Amino acid sequence: MVDLHGQYGRIKSEINTAIQQVLDSTVFIQGPEVKDFQKELGAYLKTKHVIGCANGTDALQIALMALDIKPGDEVITSNFTFIATVEVIALLNAVPVLVDVDPDTFTMDPVQLRKAITSKTKVIIPVHLFGQCANMEEILSIAAARSIPVIEDAAQALGADYIFKDGRRQKAGTLGLIGCTSFFPSKNLGCYGDGGAIFTDNDGLAEKMRAIANHGSKVKYYNDYLGINSRLDTLQAAILRVKLKELDQYNTARSAAAAAYDDALSGCSGIKTPFRSRYSTHIFHQYTLKVEEGKRDKLKEYLQEHAIPSMIYYPVPFHKQKAYSYLPYKQGDFPVTEKLCSTVLSLPMHTELDNEQINFITKTIMNFFN
After folding, report:
1. How is residue 122 annotated by DSSP?
2. Fold of the CATH domain 4-99+106-244
3. CATH second-level architecture of 247-369?
4. What is the pLDDT of residues 280-319, one digit of tens each?
5. What does the alpha-carbon distance between residue 171 and residue 161 come to, in Å, rounded to a whole number?
6. Radius of gyration of the chain (CA)
7. pLDDT, tens digit, for every residue of 26-41?
8. Do the beta carbons of residue 91 and residue 61 sit within 8 Å?
């Protein structure tokens, strides 16, 4: 699904040099590379503050803690995404309020969002999924009318541009009050372990989130907030500095691979290739098909028989997960999400895909349907 070995081979000398410099310095926690990376990522995103942390899940939790989410507060998010987005809400004893998604973009449906807001709603977390942004102009308008802060989960769309109706562009993760991302190795910008970051233009929130990530401390041994221990380590920051310079090229390579998939699969009546929205560029963290007529699982098995990996993101919606059975939802409450969970299938997508690989994958798919 992801050729990290091939990608490493292209930047091996730069990566090895960056790692060796950290080893020589022996400053493994909060070394200068961390501050340098935060500054460089901030310049790329055109945002004032970037706070590195241990992973994307922590980024979301720290953001919620900074907004003083309390037990019983309602936080709205999408039903169709990775578990971390809902997990952090539940960990803070807040109430996850789920909304259905758009059937084309797989991101938060603003119509359903509007219906879900109550007097207890304290935060909205839209998720930018598979490489493109949620409908942020609509979501931000709905949130602003009710003075509800927005936290963007941008882990799958770092580098994507949101396109406003007036033509303005802004990077995913910088539109809401706070943005969060993950540097999990398979991400478009991935490190060689775990890592994450939080973005904001708000000076006060930035100071508070830095403290929360450091045991709630602004000054060592003086704790102003209830905090956690969540740091982006120096080795990972050094690696990310090298890879950040390649991010736009990586995203371009993914888009080219997606276009090749589209062309090859355009005549296949049994599937729908990924939709491109008018309000977002697509950087293809995943290339996800919708497989019609109940053939998704059989196609996955057929691909596996031909040594082609594929993945189902995501097979079970939150309201059907055992851990979240306490939520007041039932089968049929989220028809779009439920259908997607039975029809989506993601193909290999990474920076090293070549025409020979894409041809083999797509011909195999065409053979299955023929």
Report:
1. E
2. Aspartate Aminotransferase; domain 2 (3.40.640)
3. Alpha-Beta Complex (3.90)
4. 999 999 999 999 889 999 999 999 999 999 999 999 999 9
5. 5
6. 21
7. 999 999 999 999 999 9
8. yes
